[in-house]
Amino acid sequence: MHDGLPDHPKIIEAGGEAGWLYICGLAYSSRQLTDGVSPKRLVPRLTDGSNPEASASALLRVGLWHEGQ
Q: Could you give the count of Cα atoms lying within 13 Å of 40 in the half-sphere of its Cβ?
């Protein structure tokens, strides 16, 4: 992970909770060797944020996450 991640424009636009979800998703992917894929059903378990679904939507909106196939 790059040390400039907190200042990346997409992270700033998505917001703090979404940024944390992004980091947790990266950690999950690394730990499970999923090549960047985090199952949608696990989003609430990846973070303790107040609204993980809204955070996931923000990551999709700014282009940090993409819908799976």
A: 8
* DSSP annotation of 63: T
Amino acid at 43: V
| Nearest CA-CA partner of 21 in 3, 2, 7, 42 | 42
Contacts for 14 with CB less than 8 Å, ≥ 6 apart: 22, 55, 58, 59, 61, 62, 64
50 in helix, strand or coil?
coil
Residue with tokens 């989003």: 43
**Per-domain boundaries in the chain:** 7-62
State pLDDT tens for residues 13-49: 999 999 999 999 999 999 999 988 888 899 999 988 8
Q: What is the pTM of this model?
A: 0.90
DSSP 64: S
